[in-house]
């Protein structure tokens, strides 16, 4: 069983996103709800049901969506973040003004379904190597505007976050190497200019590039799209020189291949699949 160490982003950061998404959906007003409920406030109870099994993520965020519309809405969560829920399971119940429940329904459900789908596929990847020391890591291949939430969802599923943005760490990729004229030149020029706490990661595709990254003291060496035999040799090269260098494998990682990659001895395996290939988990809201 994978335990979730996810940390919910603070609402001082999330509220502006949630408010903008509510404004996008409501526009100049919810003509259906406001016309139907023009006689005054009506209080109702509602519940969310999982229509397909999967890992739940995003319920505290969904609760916040409704509370931005009406701070008096009661939102009772019956499934913890990271819990695997069965089809037909009631995952939350809420009580409050019917207009707020109806106006917030789509934004709240969309977010929870998207995040739960990501958490579900992240769990499948993480569980494949749960008994090995290698850790499963996400990437920056995220939806613009949703990165902080999508990366939260991968954590809920059992993954570890890679850098959140370009300012978190240095990653020297193939295009940077080409622009600099080689790994040696790229590392030297970057190391002179970056703040001292930042780590330097280098993407490598050949054993020659691995050796160059070792020689110029990269903190993390990524083995990108390497065959397993070459990856094992690269791991041995790195470990024989400096056990402190972290090793990451990446490129076309699948549920079928991830365990074999982990068995080469790498520290991390990164993949965008939980974000780019996951299906939304089907959830529905029913008014009582």
Automatic annotation (TrEMBL):
Residues 30-116 form the Quinolinate phosphoribosyl transferase N-terminal domain. Keywords: Glycosyltransferase, Pyridine nucleotide biosynthesis, Transferase. One of its GO terms (molecular function) is nicotinate-nucleotide diphosphorylase (carboxylating) activity. Pathway: Cofactor biosynthesis; NAD(+) biosynthesis; nicotinate D-ribonucleotide from quinolinate: step 1/1. It holds the Pfam family QRPTase_C. GO terms for cellular component: cytoplasm. The keyword GTP-binding does not apply. It is an enzyme of class 2 (transferase). GO terms for biological process: NAD+ biosynthetic process; quinolinate catabolic process. Residues 118-286 form the Quinolinate phosphoribosyl transferase C-terminal domain. It catalyses: nicotinate beta-D-ribonucleotide + CO2 + diphosphate = quinolinate + 5-phospho-alpha-D-ribose 1-diphosphate + 2 H(+). Its EC number is 2.4.2.19. InterPro entries: Aldolase_TIM, NadC, NadC/ModD, Nicotinate_pribotase-like_C, Quinolinate_PRibosylTase_N_sf, Quinolinate_PRibosylTrfase_C, Quinolinate_PRibosylTrfase_N. Substrate binds at residues 106, 139-141, 163, 173, 203, 224, 250-252, 271-273. Belongs to the NadC/ModD family. Hexamer formed by 3 homodimers. Involved in the catabolism of quinolinic acid (QA). This is Probable nicotinate-nucleotide pyrophosphorylase [carboxylating]. It comes from Fischerella major NIES-592.
